[in-house]
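F.,

This is the one I mentioned.
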């Protein structure tokens, strides 16, 4: 099975999964940190690194200016040997970050928010042997387009491919068939992994019983 990374920004949850053999690493992003009420990035990162031991974790740059992104990338990389620096495939103006990626070749990068074949083509000549390419398969699927092709194409390169923004547990096995090395799952999806192979008749019965019990408090 592909390696499962827990995606989130809750220290208690990350601490829980740090000792879970099912989880091989962690990712987070500014949106998740905002949702969790994080105010100090450095303090949060240090707490994460203390909680997860030597499991890999990806932290994203916050800047949009190329020079500041480069400075932040080196700063974030200095936080630990198990840190990957998330660099978005473009900035907010839609300008490709390929030149910055080239300049940061010595760092462990997680090139994130990749969604198109054109973006993958820009990465073709990058020495990506120690990088991760995060294809946002779930967001691609949200548009009604099948992400399998782009994940498979990405898997032809030398970088590890990460199936990002999973929407269902089935994505774990789909990602594996497409050649992805890693998939990010939310804690809710990780908790559903135990359902794999469950007898569907039994699951149907449990569902009916749940609806019946929950309906007892309703008046008709």
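My design for it:
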């Amino acid at each position: 099975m592909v390696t499962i990374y827990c995606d989130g920004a809750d220290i208690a949850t990350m601490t829980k999964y740090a000792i879970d053999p099912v989880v091989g690493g962690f990712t987070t992003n500014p949106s998740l940190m905002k949702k969790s009420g994080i105010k100090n990035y450095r303090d949060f990162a240090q707490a994460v690194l203390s909680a997860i031991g030597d499991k890999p974790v990806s932290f994203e740059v916050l800047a949009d200016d190329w020079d500041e992104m480069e400075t932040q990338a080196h700063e974030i990389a200095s936080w630990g040997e198990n840190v990957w620096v998330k660099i978005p495939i473009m900035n907010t103006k839609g300008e490709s970050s390929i030149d910055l990626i080239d300049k940061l070749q010595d760092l462990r990068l997680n090139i994130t928010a990749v969604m198109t074949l054109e973006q993958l083509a820009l990465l073709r000549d990058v020495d990506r042997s120690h990088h991760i390419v995060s294809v946002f398969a779930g967001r691609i699927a949200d548009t009604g387009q099948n992400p399998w092709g782009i994940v498979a194409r990405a898997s032809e390169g030398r970088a590890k491919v990460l199936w990002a923004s999973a929407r269902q547990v089935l994505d774990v096995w789909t990602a594996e068939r497409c050649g992805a090395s890693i998939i990010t799952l939310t804690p809710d999806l990780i908790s559903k992994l135990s359902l794999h192979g469950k007898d569907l008749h039994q699951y149907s019965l449990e569902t009916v019983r749940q609806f019946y019990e929950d309906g007892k408090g309703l008046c008709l």
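The chain has a mean pLDDT of 96.

Talk soon.
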